[in-house]
Amino acid sequence: MNAETLTLDLETSLGRFEARLRELVDSDVEFIRLIQDDLVTAGGKRIRPRLVLLASRALGGVPREMELALAVELLHSATLLHDDLVDDAETRRGREAAFRKYGNAVSVLSGDYLLSRVLYLLAETGRLELVRLFADVARQLAEGEVFQFQVAALGEYSKANYERIIAGKTAALMRACTEGVALLADAAPMVREALRRFGYEYGMVFQMRDDYLDLMGDGQVLGKPVGGDVREGKVTLITLHLLERAAEEVGPILARRAAKPGDIARLRELAIATGAAEAVVEAITARAEQAVAALDPLPDSPAKAQLIELARSEVRRVR
Amino acid sequence: MNAETLTLDLETSLGRFEARLRELVDSDVEFIRLIQDDLVTAGGKRIRPRLVLLASRALGGVPREMELALAVELLHSATLLHDDLVDDAETRRGREAAFRKYGNAVSVLSGDYLLSRVLYLLAETGRLELVRLFADVARQLAEGEVFQFQVAALGEYSKANYERIIAGKTAALMRACTEGVALLADAAPMVREALRRFGYEYGMVFQMRDDYLDLMGDGQVLGKPVGGDVREGKVTLITLHLLERAAEEVGPILARRAAKPGDIARLRELAIATGAAEAVVEAITARAEQAVAALDPLPDSPAKAQLIELARSEVRRVR
């Protein structure tokens, strides 16, 4: 398969993915249908299914890749529905947060409905090891989210805690995308470890880039105002670096959650001036190269090249 | 096994159940531990694990009964955590609702944590059919809860909708308790169908009794004020019968959610005077006998006798 046929093949598969997704989230209950329309079928970049399909193609194609792609996306969507509530998010994927339209109840329970469909898909793969992998990932997801809440509530900010939070809430599921493929392929331990590490490291890069742009990005490109994390009291890598370099000025801004006009602009200035921004960009770059290096055991292929490109494209977004 | 050794054996197994439950819900994350202490280990009647253990003993004992008992209880606990939020419940099992203490976020996410443990237990049983059964039940649970919300929001009250709601939110999981045992036993289709039907019918009886006592019971015995469903705008079988018999007086009381002093007392009077209460008690009795009849294909045993007694004890609570 060359790069061109890979692209075509991927688009075809993603088309089938969208069709199956709609079928899967359908329900006799009208209120469930409403919320699914709103969230699941609204799109998004389908980054997790893409990871599954690319990893599968890097191994020459594996059985039941579609069920895995659907399961990771639905688990992700369920998390979004439950997080909307937690984050009190004003917008999600540029739309009104689901729970504002239909109430908390329907958000949480529709998330649970999606989780039941994940269970169904796992059974469809016929692989108990996949159930075990998802049990592990779902546990890390929930622990990561609660830990993030705990760190905010108790003010336990540190780089170690930041790593633990994003490992749980993001990298664990990305890891399931690629390790799940190895599992479906009955791949050799070395290959499984390579895909596991790539998924995990890529997930870390993805979240670090997301958090960096939340403060340092362009609000127009992001489709939301910058500084949301600071206003919600979420400490990320950039704020930790800022605190190290300019605590006297940054501390009070974080404490008041950037409530004063100009606070966010000032944090951005300080991030550039103190080198905090550069330090985070370097951390993201190093991590992306770790992701790339993890793939060494895999033979070269257009799919492997696209996985590498995926990791490096995250770096380009912050440079 | 006679009735006495059954009782002993059951208590021993429930003791092991409590110990394993505590291990399972443990987490490195402090906020998860707090909420688990609050809810899961606070007890409750463990009615679902009891159903599993009794059904298992009615088949002479099945492998992995403990994992099934733990999985149904954790799924139930997760539902309670998510429902606290939905119902805005003031108390649950006589304690402060979990979310009031730690915020919505921790309730929802701790529920998700429990769901990840259910997945782990299902993998431990080594039976994909059980994953499939739980996928089906979890779907019905979520659909039942959302449908209840939808019926309340749109005022779509009817006996058919009431049946659909309680089938989803209660009977489906009770059915999984007993059908799950048949599945673990690789039981003959007739036995599986018997246990499936018993669990389902018993679940219906259980919820109908619960809803009946919510209005007609003794607040002291219940440990909460009577009339909670009416005040939350939930229509149950007794209110539907009341509407049939005394719409002019009952309609306005339901519309104002019993906001006037004396409203609940008046509904109770009317339920007796119009025969609405008697009609519901008769429906519960008939359903309990359907549950009992479902067990006909099983050979007589002390465990079968206890299952029958369980169904009939629900009837005694309303007579």
TrEMBL record, chains A, B:
The protein's required cofactors: Mg(2+)
CDD domains according to UniProt: Trans_IPPS_HT (cd00685)
Enzyme's top EC category: transferase
EC number: 2.5.1.10
One GO BP annotation of this record: isoprenoid biosynthetic process
Keywords: Magnesium, Metal-binding, Transferase
Keyword Metal-binding carried by entry: yes
Top-level taxon: Bacteria
Similarity-based family: Belongs to the FPP/GGPP synthase family.
Protein name: Geranyltranstransferase
Species this protein is from: Marinithermus hydrothermalis (strain DSM 14884 / JCM 11576 / T1)
